[in-house]
Amino acid sequence: MGIGRDLKGIAQKNPEKAAILFEAQVITYADFYRTICQIQLNLLSLSRKNNPQKVAILIGNEPAFLELYFAVLTLGWIAIPFDPKWRKRDIVKIMKTADPDLIIISEHFPESISNMFDKSYGIETLKEPSDNMIVRDWNHNDNAAFYLGFTSGSTGTPKGFIRNHKSWLTSFSVAEQIFQYNQEDIILAPGPLCHSLSLFAATHALHIGATLQLTETFKPMVLNDRKATVVYAVPTMIHGFIEQTVNPVQEKIVFLLSGAKLQPELRRRLQHVFPKSVVYEYFGASELSFISYASNDVTDWYPDSVGKPFPGVKVTIRDQEMKRVTNGEIGEVFIESDFLFTSYLHNSEETEKVLTDYGATVGDLGFINDAGILTIVGRKKHMIISGGLNVYPEEVEKVMEEIAAVQEAVVIGIDDDYWGQKVIALVKWKKQAELEKLQAHCHAHLPNYKCPKEFYEVDDFPYTSTGKIARNDVALQIARYTS
């Protein structure tokens, strides 16, 4: 039937119920459904093809994003959210790879980006009355694709990943079962809708007829209004919630945290400010969706773990020969579930590396104990998760080495209470140091979250016998500088 299949029924049954709370604006389900239908009609008038269309969404955090998004996926088409923080080089590369049939832009999207494309349409024009008044049937195959997202590969090259309706519909059911929320809740998604974490939360909320609380940007004081009952967030946001919440909140709030481990001290502070809160940490990936979760009791007993597998998820740990290892032994983490992505876009080779005969893997290393609890000890491809967002060292290093004065650069993540992992760079200069120029170049060509927070100069790097930089030994160098 597809995501959003029940919106018409929800709008008819509860027309005045709030679908979206946005700043001071309230959008009812009747209004939400009406706007979706209007956008659908105009999209159909723009399209000259009968097969599913790919629609690039260049809209920030505002209701129009979700109105267009649901119009697209309930037509059986594919939504491609674009990140306002992407640099022009990323936008051009991703647009070429995605090859959308339609580009829809909001006036609130950065003008420097929206002006790059001639054949684009403003979202407001799609809300205007249409001559075509035939509304399509919303029933679609659950195995049909609906979402094309982008995640950087190990070299920083954007990789498109495709999801079908079924993968998220089954995830919705498990989320309701484990996190115990439903259509009576107000779900806050304070992060960017262009990222899977907040998009999943928003999609689920509206699919089941709950109320979504949406903010244009991350506003840590938002919990002072005492509206949200469920909050999807990354640990970095928790700092803001704690600091900006005026008085302890006595209402129950369910916090669903992903992207990095919640440090014990931060957890204690969270539960002091929100004494009736229920905290779940969950582990997953863009390609794999839900893998494991940890409630308070699991975290108390196994503080370094990422919890136990979600219902319907089978986790196996394998060595380099693909043999299963014994409990407690470290190996590569493989997943079997119905939550998996379909494939990477135009990249069968990379897809086969993830979707293997032994299960799906993104290269995480970890172990399972005798209680069935999963612990992640590292990332096979050196990925850093900073503020809940993926940072690939190779991408940052490539940008740094565009500066002629840089001979070599190594980027690594170190544990940090605020960021989860803080991005650190070590630089070996050819001759004269040009640190200010290097910092400016990074900020000009990388999103802020990928820019190193600290730079250290080194005379040399440790190398392997084959001449490659020994990253594990670099970590020891970092320890000397940061201790």
UniProtKB/TrEMBL annotation:
Residues 11-345 form the AMP-dependent synthetase/ligase domain. One of its GO terms (molecular function) is medium-chain fatty acid-CoA ligase activity. Keywords: Ligase. It comes from the Bacteria. Transmembrane segments: none annotated. Residues 395-468 form the AMP-binding enzyme C-terminal domain. GO terms for biological process: fatty acid metabolic process. Belongs to the ATP-dependent AMP-binding enzyme family. This is Acyl-CoA synthetase. It comes from Oceanobacillus zhaokaii. The lineage of its organism: Bacteria, Bacillati, Bacillota, Bacilli, Bacillales.
